[in-house]
Write a structure and sequence with these properties.
By secondary structure, this protein is α+β, with helices and mostly antiparallel strands. The chain has helices at 35-40, 114-122, 128-131, 177-187, and strands at residues 13-15, 21-23, 27-31, 51-55, 60-62, 76-77, 80-86, 102-109, 112-113, 137-139, 143-144, 155-160, 163-169, 195-197, 206-207, 212-217, 221-226. It has 4 helices and 17 strands. Residues 27-227 form the Fumarylacetoacetase-like C-terminal domain.
């Protein structure tokens, strides 16, 4: 007999290449981790250490599902990102040991209500309404780390209706993966099941209902989502 007074919510999961499911605990995101994107948003890329925000785990949109156009926005943006899945937890992880904590990688899209983000920034308010809304984290299939020989470099691209909007290399990150993991672990104890969206390159722009978003990272995979 269950002790739950209501039915527990489903466990968010990400499919794994070759079979299986990766259970998701938390989603952390890195802000302004590519210099050109920081500049296009009006910021100095050298002025600050990495900073973080979060999305709820149930914001994930699994490959093939639609992401409905969200309410209360008229400026809905795409941000293609490398996603890191944590397999071994820890706190205050040294940079030199950070990659040992990675279970795998995926391609993700951080969808953003840009007008609400601008409003939040102007008023020094939290970003949740701009970043943590329902269906705001499309993600592709997770690839085990052992199958990704060069996770610190590779072409990253996003196309909207076949037109390239974002194109860069993950080697262009201001803070590479070991430093991102190490810095994040100073603020939060990481656990197996955590995902880290590692920032987006330049070229973010608005999408509308019906747009087809196709993202890819060389050597890792792809993600496809339609704005419903």
């Amino acid at each position: 007999m269950s002790d739950y007074v209501i039915a527990p919510p489903p466990q968010p999961v990400v499919p794994v290449a070759g079979g299986g499911l990766f259970p998701v605990r938390r989603i952390y995101c890195v802000g302004r981790n590519y210099a050109e994107h920081a500049r296009e948003m009006g910021h100095d890329p050298n002025a600050e250490p990495p900073f973080f925000f979060a999305k709820p785990a149930d914001a994930l949109v699994i490959e093939g599902a639609d992401s409905p156009y969200p309410s209360e926005t008229s400026n809905h943006h795409h941000e293609i990102e490398l996603v890191v899945a944590i397999g071994t937890g820890g706190r205050n992880i040294p940079v030199a040991e950070a990659m040992r904590h990675v279970w795998g990688y995926a391609v993700g899209i951080d969808l953003t209500r840009r007008d609400l983000q601008a409003w939040a920034k102007k008023g020094a308010k939290p970003w949740e309404v701009a970043k943590g809304f329902d269906h705001s984290a499309p993600i592709g299939t997770l690839v085990p780390a052992a199958d990704v020989p060069t996770p610190l470099k590779g072409a990253i691209e996003l196309r909207v209706n076949g037109e390239t909007r974002q194109s860069a290399d993950i080697a262009d990150m201001t803070w590479d993966l070991p430093h991102v993991i190490a810095e994040l672990s100073k603020y939060f104890e990481l656990f197996p099941g955590d995902l880290i969206f590692t920032g987006t390159p330049a070229g973010v722009s608005a999408v509308v209902k019906g747009d087809l978003l196709e993202g890819s990272i060389a050597g890792i995979g792809s993600v496809t989502v339609r704005i419903g």
